[in-house]
């Protein structure tokens, strides 16, 4: 349970995030096979509603725990660090209980407003997970405040594995009673996984007893009253909850008006539900690279906060520029790759239908990534409420775009993608103005995107060529899943090497970047690429 370095902690959380997101993708075809396309649409709607309640209950206080514990440990006030955790844990348990009851009590009105009446049982079955995840979040905040990311990472993997296994088992068993009951079964694993995760974290906490009180009581240390601790938790937690909640509110907008506007365009109830299921698959795929951006956000927050606290504008500017640079280095090639290989990837994962949404809307990934980094920067600068207001403006614009475009038959579900682009683009512009005004520094995001874009275009051309040449040649031997899988995997590997090579040639990555990367990753890079890096 040793305190870990920032780099190692970032690597551990990134790895866990990627594993859980990939696992969540791999079980989609099995779930669709069990509950069908209509059932998956219902499942997607119920999960978006759950996710919104989840972030309201779990996004702010765990971050407050982490921040408060790290601050108190820094001044060697270990007793109050433990008291803060216990107080925050109690608050989270109470919030979890209240939000679980609210989700059950208002399940029927929610499904009526969102026009997904078949999602009623699914939402009720998801309600216990709110309480269990609240407990788990408290312990995750504690360990992150201690600088130990391993329990959080392991608990995430345990939660996802059990979620998948039990969701599939209960969905298969309960489908005999109808689609609505089968969809409810597919959500039971969420509560079981959350309970197991919370139990594991509680076990880790009990084993780390040497952290409980590391020092004898010291009269020279200024102690905090219970009221002061509660006030700090609220002051840290509420702005973050509002900001993250507004981001997820955009998904609720999709749940509420997508189906209604599709039906206004002439589609039947089931057809509209299936198309919403396609949108859910697309969003699930985007969440895989977003997991890396989330880890990046967690890593850059302390650096920018520290620089802003000592009013070191040069360091702040350098940190912000570096974060945007990394953001584009990750997001741009992922967006290009997903667009070009959308259909082969959907076939590889055996996800039926919706690949055209990814082909048209992969650029949303870049907008999501930039906005997430901007929000993190504004967090570190104490401008959270501004970020929240801008998110609300973006959501309002998204509603308007969705309302107009989705009902047009030739556009239908792609109108939601257009709405997302507008919904992210407007806050990005406003956030950029606020960052520039707050720091009085010029941050040119376009400059950071040029080299990744050039490298991604070269990568995209080669990926397209490699895939279709291999797929055509293998087509003479056999057809079906295997030729597509081999061609897709080969194209992805060639794409990765091409992207890194072109970046190295045009100066998109430097020796300093290599030094910051874990050695296990740099060892995987071929020497002919390393020799090109200046």
UniProtKB/TrEMBL annotation:
<feature type="transmembrane region" description="Helical">
    <location>
        <begin position="288"/>
        <end position="310"/>
    </location>
</feature>
<feature type="transmembrane region" description="Helical">
    <location>
        <begin position="322"/>
        <end position="341"/>
    </location>
</feature>
<feature type="transmembrane region" description="Helical">
    <location>
        <begin position="353"/>
        <end position="372"/>
    </location>
</feature>
<feature type="transmembrane region" description="Helical">
    <location>
        <begin position="47"/>
        <end position="66"/>
    </location>
</feature>
<dbReference type="InterPro" id="IPR002797">
    <property type="entry name" value="Polysacc_synth"/>
</dbReference>
<keyword id="KW-0812">Transmembrane</keyword>
<feature type="transmembrane region" description="Helical">
    <location>
        <begin position="411"/>
        <end position="430"/>
    </location>
</feature>
<feature type="transmembrane region" description="Helical">
    <location>
        <begin position="489"/>
        <end position="510"/>
    </location>
</feature>
<keyword id="KW-1003">Cell membrane</keyword>
<feature type="transmembrane region" description="Helical">
    <location>
        <begin position="233"/>
        <end position="253"/>
    </location>
</feature>
<dbReference type="Pfam" id="PF01943">
    <property type="entry name" value="Polysacc_synt"/>
</dbReference>
<keyword id="KW-1133">Transmembrane helix</keyword>
<dbReference type="InterPro" id="IPR050833">
    <property type="entry name" value="Poly_Biosynth_Transport"/>
</dbReference>
<feature type="transmembrane region" description="Helical">
    <location>
        <begin position="185"/>
        <end position="205"/>
    </location>
</feature>
<feature type="transmembrane region" description="Helical">
    <location>
        <begin position="12"/>
        <end position="35"/>
    </location>
</feature>
<feature type="transmembrane region" description="Helical">
    <location>
        <begin position="160"/>
        <end position="179"/>
    </location>
</feature>
<feature type="transmembrane region" description="Helical">
    <location>
        <begin position="450"/>
        <end position="469"/>
    </location>
</feature>
<keyword id="KW-0472">Membrane</keyword>
<dbReference type="InterPro" id="IPR024923">
    <property type="entry name" value="PG_synth_SpoVB"/>
</dbReference>
<feature type="transmembrane region" description="Helical">
    <location>
        <begin position="384"/>
        <end position="405"/>
    </location>
</feature>
<feature type="transmembrane region" description="Helical">
    <location>
        <begin position="119"/>
        <end position="139"/>
    </location>
</feature>
<feature type="transmembrane region" description="Helical">
    <location>
        <begin position="87"/>
        <end position="107"/>
    </location>
</feature>
<protein>
    <submittedName>
        <fullName>Stage V sporulation protein B</fullName>
    </submittedName>
</protein>
């Amino acid at each position: 349970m040793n305190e870990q370095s920032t780099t190692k902690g970032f690597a551990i959380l990134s790895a866990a995030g990627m594993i859980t997101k990939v696992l969540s993708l791999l079980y989609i075809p099995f779930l669709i096979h069990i509950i069908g396309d209509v059932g998956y649409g219902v499942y997607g709607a119920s999960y978006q509603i759950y996710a919104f309640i989840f972030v309201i209950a779990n996004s702010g206080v765990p971050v407050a725990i982490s921040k408060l514990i790290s601050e108190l440990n820094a001044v060697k006030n270990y007793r109050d660090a433990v008291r803060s955790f216990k107080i925050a844990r109690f608050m989270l348990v109470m919030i979890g209980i209240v939000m679980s009851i609210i989700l059950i009590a208002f399940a029927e009105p929610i499904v009526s407003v969102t026009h997904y009446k078949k999602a009623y049982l699914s939402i009720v079955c998801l309600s216990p997970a709110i309480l269990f995840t609240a407990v788990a979040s408290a312990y995750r905040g504690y360990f992150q405040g201690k600088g130990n990311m391993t329990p959080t990472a392991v608990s995430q993997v345990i939660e996802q594995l059990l979620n998948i296994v039990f969701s599939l088992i209960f969905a298969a068993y309960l489908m005999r009673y109808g689609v609505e009951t089968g969809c409810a079964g597919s959500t039971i694993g969420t509560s079981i996984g959350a309970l197991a995760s919370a139990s594991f974290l509680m076990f880790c906490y009990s084993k780390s007893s040497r952290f409980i009180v590391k020092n004898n009581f010291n009269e020279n240390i200024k102690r905090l009253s219970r009221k002061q601790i509660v006030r700090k938790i609220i002051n840290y937690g509420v702005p973050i909850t509002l900001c993250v909640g507004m981001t997820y509110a955009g998904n609720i907008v999709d749940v509420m008006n997508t189906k209604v506007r599709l039906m206004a365009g002439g589609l039947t109830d089931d057809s509209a539900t299936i198309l919403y299921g396609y949108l859910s698959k697309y969003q699930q795929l985007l969440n895989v690279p977003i997991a890396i951006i989330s880890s990046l956000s967690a890593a850059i927050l302390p650096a920018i906060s520290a620089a802003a606290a000592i009013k070191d504008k040069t360091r702040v500017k350098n940190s912000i520029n570096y974060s945007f640079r990394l953001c584009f280095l990750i997001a741009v090639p992922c967006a290009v790759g997903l667009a070009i290989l959308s259909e082969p990837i959907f076939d590889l994962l055996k996800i039926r239908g919706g690949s055209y949404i990814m082909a048209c809307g992969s650029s949303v990934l870049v907008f999501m990534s930039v906005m997430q980094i901007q929000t993190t920067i504004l967090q570190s600068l104490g401008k959270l409420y501004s970020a929240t207001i801008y998110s609300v403006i973006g959501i309002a614009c998204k509603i308007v775009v969705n309302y107009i475009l989705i009902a047009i038959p030739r556009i239908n579900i792609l109108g939601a993608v257009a709405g997302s682009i507008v919904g992210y683009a407007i806050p990005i512009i406003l956030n950029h103005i606020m960052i520039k005004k707050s720091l009085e520094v010029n941050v040119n995001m376009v400059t950071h995107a040029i080299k990744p874009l050039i490298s991604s275009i070269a990568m995209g051309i080669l990926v397209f060529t490699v895939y279709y040449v291999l797929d055509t040649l293998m087509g003479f031997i056999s057809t079906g899943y295997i030729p597509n899988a081999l061609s897709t995997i080969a194209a992805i590997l060639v794409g990765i090497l091409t992207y890194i090579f072109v970046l190295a040639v045009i100066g998109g990555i430097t020796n300093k970047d290599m030094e910051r990367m874990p050695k296990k990753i740099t060892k995987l890079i071929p020497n002919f690429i390393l020799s090109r890096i200046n």
